[in-house]
Amino acid sequence: MPTAAGVEVLEIGSRLEPVLDDYWIDSMEGVQLRLHAPHPAEVVLQPHGNGYMTVLKDGDTYRMYYRLVFPSTEPDGYDFTCYAESTDGIHWTKPDLGMFQMSGSPDRNAITERNMVTPGEEDHPHFPRISHNFRPFLDTRPEVPTDERFKALGGGFNSSAPQAGYWAMVSADGIHWRKLQEDWVIDRSNWPHGTDSAPAGVFWSDAENCYVAYIRIRVHPEDINTGKVGGLRWIGFITSSDLINWSSVTPVKMRKSAYYTNETQPYFRAPHIYLATPARFHQGSAFTEAELAKLPEEMQLHAPPGEEDVGFTDVVLLTSRGGNRYDCTFEEAFLRPGLNPRNWGNRSTYPCVNFVPTSDTEMSLYVRHGIGSYGYVQRYTLRTDGIASINAPLSGGEVVTKPLRFSGRQLVINFSTSGSGSVQVEVQDGEGKPLPGYRLEDAHAVIGDAIERGVTWESASDVSHLVDQTIRLRFVLKDADLYSFRFHDADKDGENQRQ
Asked: Total domain count for the chain?
């Protein structure tokens, strides 16, 4: 819906709008978009094999799925999908499921093994196995059957395999899985070009009203719309209404880089926004030959003889509001490998899928560091919505939104200030003129630190009478960070929230 001036009006309703891109920003002065690094916390699993991970919060239970690889004569090893669970996201256990015996490990927490494949193909050394790229998710589709509450894609493409594809899996409890159908649901009819295996970022999208998957593909370095065996690692976008019949893969539009994974999922507080934390691949070694000589050989910090495609990884942040596009707002790394030299080994820093809440004010991301016997999983924390912010110095600055329409009674913000800082909000009409009673001089200064604090003015806090109008918000900040805002259906008294 355009305004009189022809500017598109954003229909945000009462949804949360975090600071992750410039979607709702019209102008900024004296402020900047700032990316915040996650804080390292405790190691939650050790030792850990080299593999991909998924963490789901299912009610009061946290469920972790990770790949455990044992050496074998096969190029990718002999791998299992293993399961761990937690009641707080901090302390994890490996339940004795008694389903599969893992030779070389005393644990009995595997939920898949390599032989969950089509009979007759399992002995091919490059056959894409379900365990190698198993990626589960909680299906939030309305009226999903209870015995299909958990879904997954497993398998993947591989240029050297005679055939390639992903199977669809379903489960009632997230532990016992079955194929949705015997045949692949995604194969080379969806993407005929060669690539190599990696898990799909797969989920039900309420915003797009379909299942969405982001999968790794290979493209021509000079033309991303052209597939090329052995070409640049890229990300492809594909959709389905039923998890069985999928569209053709479309290469996404994004900044050019070598993303080894994509790890895309909806943000749990704002599912209309997808968060991706790819492992960004850097060819070679971060160490000199002299430094390598002092490190254990098992850490695999350099390329084995005859192998060139070896390097280290860091983690970047990409976002999407749907479709075949990522917004690359921040070029800098979201997570650096850190001081531990294990984290700088060959593909030794891989994030898991999903940010999950671990308290009312904190969310967590899990990262696999190291490789083989030196591998471990570490938890990292951020304040809720604290991935990025609009940051202002003490001298002050401001940001003005695009025209928008909302629903709700009160504006609430996630913010942090210093003792000398503040946040004030002016409500304007769609053309940028301050509304009487909601001018900057009417606005109370919001000071402190809160995940959700109501904004008030001298004569008002209830803005529900503005619901049918097109408005803009002008945030004026001093030594402050703004992480998100939304219009809340219930009153959040400004004074009561200052604690």
From this structure: 2
CA distances 456 to 51, 118, 294, 366, Å, are 49, 62, 61, 38
Q: Does residue 109 sit in the same domain as residue 93?
A: yes
CA R_g for the chain? 24
Rounded mean pLDDT of the chain? 88
Question: Please, what is the Cα angle at 83 between 78 and 87, to 5 degrees?
Answer: 160
465 CB-near residues (< 8 Å, 6+ apart) = none
Nearest to 388 by CA among 12, 111, 34: 34
Structure confidence by residue, pLDDT tens digits, 35-80: 999 999 999 998 766 678 999 999 999 999 998 877 654 544 567 8
Residue 260 and residue 27: Cα distance in Å, rounded? 34
Residues 169 and 200 in one domain: yes
Residue 496 inside a domain? The answer is no
pLDDT in the model for residue 150: 98
How far apart CA 489 and CA 1 sit, in angstroms, is 23
Domain membership of residue 493 (yes or no) is: no
Domain that holds residue 243: 39-383
H or E element at residue 84: strand 78-86
End-to-end CA distance of the chain: 40
Domain with 355 in it: what CATH number?
2.115.10.20
Average pLDDT (135-159) is 91
Note the pTM of the prediction, 2 decimals.
0.92
434-461 b/e (C-beta count within 10 Å ≥ 16 → b): bbeebbeebbbebbbebbbbbbbbeeeb
Burial class (CB in 10 A: 0-12, 13-18, 19+), 33: middle
Number of neighbouring beta carbons within 10 Å of residue 6 = 6
Which of helix, strand or coil describes residue 86? Answer: strand
Token pair in block for residue 249:
């893969």
CATH of the domain at 453: 2.60.120.260
The residue from 383, 405, 437 where one domain ends is 383
pLDDT for 287 equals 85
